[in-house]
Amino acid sequence: MKTISPLQEERLKYQPKLPDSLSKGINNLELETGSATEAAGDKEQIKELFAKTYGNPVVTFKTTGNSKSSPVKNVGVILSGGQAPGGHNVIAGLFDALKQANKENKLYGFLGGPSGIIDGKYVEITKDFIDKYRNTGGFDIIGSGRTKLETEEQFKKSLEVCKKLNISAVVIIGGDDSNTNAALLAEWFVKNDAGIQVIGCPKTIDGDLKNEQIETSFGFDTATKTYAELIGNIQRDANSAKKYWHFIKIMGRSASHVALEAALQTQPNIVLISEEVEAKKMSLEQIVNSMCDVIVKRASMGKNFGIVIVPEGLIEFIPEMKTMISNLNDIMHDLEADTAYSNATSTRERFEIVADRLDDSNEKVFSSLPALIKSQLLMDRDPHGNVQVSRIETEKLLIEMIRTRLSELKQQGEYIGKFSDQAHFFGYEGRCAFPSNFDADYCYSLGFNAFALINFGLTGYLSCVKNLVKPASEWVAGGVPLTMMMNMEKRHGEMKPVIKKALIKLDGAVFKELEEHRDDWAMNDRYLFPGAIQYFGPSSVCDITTVTLQLENK
Question: Is 206 part of the annotated catalytic residue set?
């Protein structure tokens, strides 16, 4: 019986493409530096917190004809946070560059995420070991975790482990929070003369780790293409059966990049954008009414079917819901210690106790919600005592409210259609997919480039590969200081330095593309069917980038 699938067998043979500057050899690089940089916001506070690593320049690499020798270096690598397609290729690129620089170099993978470097759990990554994971999805090569690296004790333990393995650099592959921790660790190592560099790599399928220097985070390309395939399949089914409204919740808690990209690839009838809802201060009722307008108009055309895309984090962007959830977070700690609440014999009784404790305006919002959503709001809290918004079935909340509103309109003679619904949530389906050729190439380049940054003695940098809408040979490799991307934000009651999330720009080219076509898509079925990700064939199909990346780099 086979131990791997035919596709995996073929993907293991794929050789990712590199930018020309990196493909000439890791020891044939020259470093070009720009001018000093500043933080994205709260400059003085960030400068004070990162006194040793603040203000470093953006750097780029170019090929030189002179080959340099590279001293022996041991490097540690960490996978941090949620999975994203291409993580294995970052490690493969790092490994290949490291061995190309000096065959005596060693790469250690810390197991289970950041906790691995604290607890000293690791594996040496060898050629035989890494070759089984090239161009595959997932983070199973060494596992991932969400432990934060932010305390003195954690830093000291990390240093002890690095000294034991003679590690001189650590690469942290993660999202905004993980790379914030990378910046903190880099600063601590410099401040304490540890002699250990820290380099980050931009990972998140949510697409909110980007700026003028970082064009996209890895995994976004593969995940959105995977979701778009699924949405396209459902659209084909809807257009065949013509009897269901499909409500599809899709990954993206803090920003709607995934929903917007998936919509541009598939052209559904309705797509909600959290940032637009917040900017327009739309109430839940207004959202429902606007969706009902489309449903009613389509029904008058004999179309009792359609596709709706809902971003995962929508509920936190609706002003009255955001305020109510904040109030709920404040009272839940006391409620859980309240015997009347803990001894309540029915969910109805618990709902009444909660409603009684909420502020008047928030009580009205809470009481107006379906029982299913109320129950989800009262589920176990996250480690910080907050509502686990990702577990709230927003798509079902919208369905319930739309059903109620349509019933009212039917009684008033304003709706003559039939409303049948199907709910879906696409999340885990995209996080560990086989990386697209773009992500396979991009991730390999990010890892290879990370070692180039190490080789030049840099620390507190994020591996950066730009010019991504061009062929891979024309990509530009370099590095961005992590402090350049940071500002201060309130997290769990305290102001902390964090990498600034990139939200949808409502005046940007990507949102404007949706805005221009959404009315047409609502009434006329302009569905696109992207199909499965293609790995073999013409470059125009296999190496294509996301619509977002193309529009942002026009």
Answer: yes
